Amino acid sequence: MGVRLMVVDDHRLLAEALASALKLRGHRVLAAAAPAAGAAELVISRAPEVCLLGTATPAEPGMFDPVVRIKQERPQVAVLVLGPVPSPRGIAAAFAAGASGYVRHDERIEGVERAIMKARAGEAAVAPQLLQGAFSELLNPAAQPDDEGQRLLQMLTPREVEVLVRVADGEDTRLIAAGMGIAPSTARTHVQRVLMKLGVGSRLEAAALAARTGLLDRAGPVGGPPAV
Question: How far apart are CA 141 and CA 131, in angstroms?
Answer without folding.
Answer: 15
